[in-house]
Amino acid sequence: MKILYPYFALKLWVDSLLFLILFSGLILLFALSNNQPLGIIASLIVLTITGKHFRKTIKNLYRNLKKLPALELTDDYLIDHINDIKIRWSYISKADLISLRGNSFVRFILRDKEKYSEQLKGLLSKIMFKFTNPDNLAIKTELSLVKGKNEEIYSQIYKIIQEKKLYNF
User: Fold this and answer.
1) Which of 8, 26, 63, 122 has a Cα-to-Cα distance from 15 of 20 to 30 A?
2) Residue-wise pLDDT tens for the chain (169 aa)?
3) pTM, whole model, 2 decimals?
4) d(Cα 145, Cα 83) in Å, to the nearest integer?
């Protein structure tokens, strides 16, 4: 089994362009300010904090242009190309559909936090992961960026998780 879900191009491009314009504008505003070297330092701080999101945005735009999937459901894995994570179905203990600020997400409660932490890239992500409550580790995938009805995508994910629970004692 391999189910592929493409990107919802309009939402992806609108969100990405807004972020890139604001990101670039903020960096330029700080870098070109009259308070130097404070402006350069501030722009480097903003670049450090938002750099991962910038790279992720560019990667998702590229994947959309190449018509590559945003989300893959295989026999063994859920592959979320939006967040660049790959999770074994057996590592997911629970999934639910949530809404945050008008965007729909599937939230996954994981059994094994170590398998997820191995996939984290960047020092800041790894540090932030250490400070969270690892007992109830949850990650989320934004369904608003995936083409299709959110409830149907969630239903398919939920169905696979339930099937895997039956066969994984």
Assistant:
1) 122
2) 899 999 999 999 999 999 989 888 888 887 787 777 887 888 888 888 888 888 889 999 999 999 999 999 999 999 999 988 888 888 888 889 998 888 899 988 887 666 666 766 666 666 666 666 555 667 888 999 999 999 999 999 999 988 877 655 4
3) 0.78
4) 11
Written as six digits, the tokens of 103 are 């965007």
The residue among 82, 97, 137 whose CA lies nearest residue 114 is 137
Token reading at 119: 């996939």
> DSSP letters along the chain, please?
-EEEE-B-HHHHHHHHHHHHHHHHHHHHHHHTSSSTTHHHHHHHHHHHHHHHHHHHHHHHHHHHHTT--SEEEESSEEEETTTTEEEEGGGEEEEEEEEETTEEEEEEEES-HHHHHTT--SHHHHHHHHHS-GGG-EEEEEGGGBSS-HHHHHHHHHHHHHHHHHH--
> How far is it, in rounded angstroms, from Cα 18 to Cα 27?
14
Name the nearest CA neighbour of 24 among 54, 48, 64.
54
Q: Counting beta carbons within 10 angstroms of the beta carbon of residue 81, is it exposed (0 to 12), middle (13 to 18) or buried (19 or more)?
A: buried
Sheet holding 77-80, edge to edge: 2-5, 71-74, 77-80, 85-88
